[in-house]
Amino acid sequence: MKSKVLKIIILWAAFSSSFFFSFAQPKVGQKAPDFKIEDPNGKIIRLSDLSDKIVLLDFWASWCMPCRQVNPEIVALYHKYHDKGFEIFSVSLDTKKEAWLNAIKKDQLSWPFHGSDLKGWENEVAELYDISGIPATFLIDEKGIIIGTDLDEYDLDKKLNFLFNEQVQFYPQTAAGKLFFTAKAKYQIEDLKGNVLLKGKSEEVDITGLAASEYLIRYEGKSSLFLKKVNDQALVTFYPQRVDDQITLSKNANFEIYNQRGKLIKKGSGEVIMVQDLSSGNYYISLEGTVNTFFKK
């Protein structure tokens, strides 16, 4: 009798655990759960593959008419902001591969990140994100933090415009000749005693006249420190400009890599920089304070 009661208690506990500890839908301000899923070619793709991008995680299906109706608007936003660092990761709740692929082609969903396990509503990623209806979307920043959910086309466009065109950043943090802004900005450069040395409104600032030291820059309601370096006449060069896995420098040097939003994503020193972890797109590279660009294939 005691063994039967014990079995009942264990079964009840197991049921209660699965019930009360099921996945809850991630909210704005929380980290987006990482996942892996197969693309149409059977390749494993991960959300973390896009860690340096602004990502729209989009749950949809070929049979979902509201999803299909909004796709033209999503495609337009993709082309509008993709070159600035916007990417889309589509997770399909289809059960038939042919229908899934036909919808991708017909709706011209040209981004490369499409995934499905063809399990319909039992899709593992959909369960991880507690999806109960589609379309469902999550806007995720470069740090993997959710910054918006289920935004309509107007609000998504407004948010992306703010992120890419209005939220100004500067780079590099260690500079030799110039500072750059991601958009035209009012700025003021001070020494650490508060003396104003330079001010104006521009997309770049010539700082060659400043002595090598640390300075404070104020711009668009923000402030940050940067380091002015001596401008080395023997500039560091690099190759290739269209990169697969690594960048080779002409000599050992300090480097900083920024995305199109001016966010620092990698820094260090050496003669070889491994960039296989970067997603495809354009980047800024600062070598001993001098900025160039490269394209990650």
TrEMBL record:
UniProt xrefs under Gene3D superfamilies: Glutaredoxin
Cross-referenced Pfam families: AhpC-TSA
SUPFAM superfamilies the UniProt entry points to: Thioredoxin-like
Any one Gene Ontology cellular component term annotated for this protein: cell envelope
Localization: Cell envelope
Any GO MF annotation of the entry: oxidoreductase activity
Regions annotated as coiled coil: none
One GO BP: cytochrome complex assembly
Segments forming domain Thioredoxin: 26-168
Matching PROSITE patterns: THIOREDOXIN_2 (PS51352)
Keyword Signal: yes
Signal peptide coordinates: 1-24
Entry keyword set: Cytochrome c-type biogenesis, Disulfide bond, Redox-active center, Signal
InterPro entries: AhpC/TSA, Thioredoxin-like_sf, Thioredoxin_domain, Thioredoxin_ResA/DsbE_sf
Highest taxon of source: Bacteria
Protein name: Redoxin family protein
The organism of origin for this protein: Sporocytophaga myxococcoides
